[in-house]
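Thread: Ankyrin repeat-containing domain protein, structure

OP (GT): Posting the sequence first so everyone is looking at the same thing. Length is 188 residues per the record. Can we get the structure tokens written out before standup tomorrow? I want them in the notebook alongside the other entries.
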Amino acid sequence: MAPTTDEQEEFLLSCRYGDLDDVKQFILQFGVAAAAEIRDDNGNTPLHMLCGNGHADVLDYLLPIVPPTLLSVRNSAQSTPLHWAALNSHLDVVKKLVQFPGGPGIDLIDIKNAAGRSPLGEAELAGWDEGAQWLVQMMKLDVDGDVKEGEGDDTNDGEDLSLPAEGVEIEIEDADGQMAKMRIGGEP
């Protein structure tokens, strides 16, 4: 039996508020496929709700059982769950999304929403330097800002990486095509 509209809304609220017991109960009753299909009126998935609110415990439960494609689903504003986690400064959640085996990985960092911002851009806009630095490290940028394809220690989970003492300067393109420079780490 499929969940009713009310049951679907309750599930989204359980994800939003981090009620792991209710999330587990919904999965037991209706299955993972039903949970993965649920969207609110703005196209938000259960992952949008829990990632935007920093519920790493619920994410730990759902990530291994939902389709990995759910990590890159966009809402009506074209934002992914990673955009929401970055906007709200949830580093643990950001790391779990990017590092999830079998998921899109660092490709999630490049997805732009309708405002033309990537999750890195959202972190920078929110003034969240720690998250922006981590996202830059995951992108494997060198000091000149060039992507080093295939370089870096792939066995490192990103926990202990550090920026060069002089920092990293990157450019972010906004929705209008204008370039903005951003310096992460080091002295201004």
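GT: Both are above now. Quick notes for whoever picks this up: The first strand starts at residue 168 and ends at 173. Residues 147-161 have pLDDT under 50 and may be disordered.
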